[in-house]
Amino acid sequence: MMRLNTLIKILLVVLLIPIGLLTKVYSGIGCDFVHNYLGGIIYVVFFIILASMILPRTNSLRISLFVLGFTCVVEFSQLIQTEVLKSFRTHFLIRTLIGSVFNVFDFVFYAVGAVVGFGILEILKKRIEK
User: Which domain covers residue 80, as residue numbers?
Assistant: First the structure.
């Protein structure tokens, strides 16, 4: 059962990478929401699942809170606008990972992502306990 959970986590991580990147270039219905907020949810879920693979014995809540906290620090770092950071943020991948503009509403969606990521880890943990 544990191997199946690891495979599920790997599959989720592999699927979330292109989905997350696509949120940055999506231009259809609701593109503002998808671009600005859905990507943040996926970002947090991705890193929670990845962290749980790196630290498999760590409590789901701790992982979720750590990733949420780290993501909030990254969001606050967007308030810093040095020339070096501005030049880094011109690159798509860097801008996708660390963002470029501070938005207080992002915190709500990071929290949603933390709840979703925590829920996924708890569901997988319950599968092992059966």
Answer: 2-129
Structural domain total, the chain? 1
**DSSP per-residue letters across the chain:** -HHHHHHHHHHHHHHHHHHHHHHHH--STTHHHIIIIIHHHHHHHHHHHHHHHHSTTS-HHHHHHHHHHHHHHHHHHTT---HHHHHHTTSHHHHHHH-SS--TTHHHHHHHHHHHHHHHHHHHHHHHH-
Report the predicted TM-score, pTM, of the whole model to 2 decimal places. Answer: 0.90
Per-residue pLDDT reduced to its tens digit, 109-118: 999 999 999 9
